[in-house]
Amino acid sequence: MEISTLKKNVCLIIAILCTTSVMQIKAQSEIEVDLGADLVNSYVWRGFKQAGASVQPGISASMSGFTLGAWGATDISSVGKKEVDLYASYEKSGLKLAVTDYWWDGEDAFRYFSSPKDGFNGHYLEATLGYTLPEAFPLSISWNTFLLGKGNKKENGDNSYSTYVELAYPFSVKGVDMGIAAGFTPWESSVYPTSGFKFTSIMLNASKSIKINDSYSLPVFANIICNPNTEDIHFVFGISIK
């Protein structure tokens, strides 16, 4: 039942993305399209290293607070590591609601729409609730819970509802955009994995645009990420292309 539900959700998101393409033709002035890619030396997600040097493309379409998009990552330092995520979100007055379909099985897995087997986990479905305070104090908090997915199961087969909560605060220093963030799992999680309340990501990030010529600047960013749960640390550097 769960695998069938996941397939239906994936198909639904893809259908919505196709519908958005038709809407763009009819109302180009109302839809904003964002297309770009990051090149990073290491792919770290919520404090856990997912892959080595990676290319991470993304595309999204937004209108009236609604956004539909796709994001992916391909490890260029090894063969077989690939991720494709589809998401839908709505934002208004600082409030954000989102649902994301994650597919992490990569090139060694069966087809994208196949049922998980032989060690592969298939798709994961996550719901997100976030809120950002007014500009005077733009602290943001997000609550992310996995609702479906084979890899989200406990050893006894129960859904672990793996959850990650993050607080983030942006600031700037001498023209450099920076931010601090802290994320934790509030209870036992199968996805990350943790045995209970654990901080998995303490991050300091910085970004700026390096002027190449009078008409083009290259955005670069760097993240220092510490995972207290695994006693690990990562230094991520990336280049954004848009």
**Main β sheet profile:** 12 strands, antiparallel, barrel
CATH topology: Porin
Can you give the helix content as a percent range? 10-25%
| Run of helices and strands | HEEEEEEEEEEEEEE
Low-confidence stretches: none
- Could you tell me the radius of gyration in angstroms? 19 Å
Give me the side-by-side strand order of the main sheet: 1-4-5-6-7-8-9-10-11-12-13-14
Give the N-terminus to C-terminus distance in angstroms.
40 Å
- Number of folding domains? 1
**What is the CATH superfamily?**
monomeric porin ompg
Number of helical elements = 1
Structural class: mainly beta
Name of the top-level CATH class = Mainly Beta
- Shape-level CATH architecture: Beta Barrel
Shape: globular
Indicate the proportion of strand residues.
over 45%
Instruction: Kindly state the number of beta strands.
Output: 14
User: Mean pLDDT, nearest integer?
Assistant: 88
SSE topology sketch:
Layout: H1 2-26, E1 32-40, E2 43-45, E3 48-51, E4 54-63, E5 66-75, E6 82-92, E7 95-103, E8 123-132, E9 140-148, E10 163-173, E11 176-185, E12 198-213, E13 216-227, E14 232-241
Antiparallel strand pairs: 1-4, 1-14, 2-3, 4-5, 5-6, 6-7, 7-8, 8-9, 9-10, 10-11, 11-12, 12-13, 13-14
Structural account:
The chain has 242 residues and is mainly beta. The protein has a single domain (2-241), classed as Porin. 10% of the residues lie in helices and 55% in strands. It contains one helix and 14 strands. It has one helix at 2-26, and strands at residues 32-40, 43-45, 48-51, 54-63, 66-75, 82-92, 95-103, 123-132, 140-148, 163-173, 176-185, 198-213, 216-227, 232-241. A twelve-stranded antiparallel barrel has the order 1-4-5-6-7-8-9-10-11-12-13-14. A two-stranded antiparallel sheet has the order 2-3.
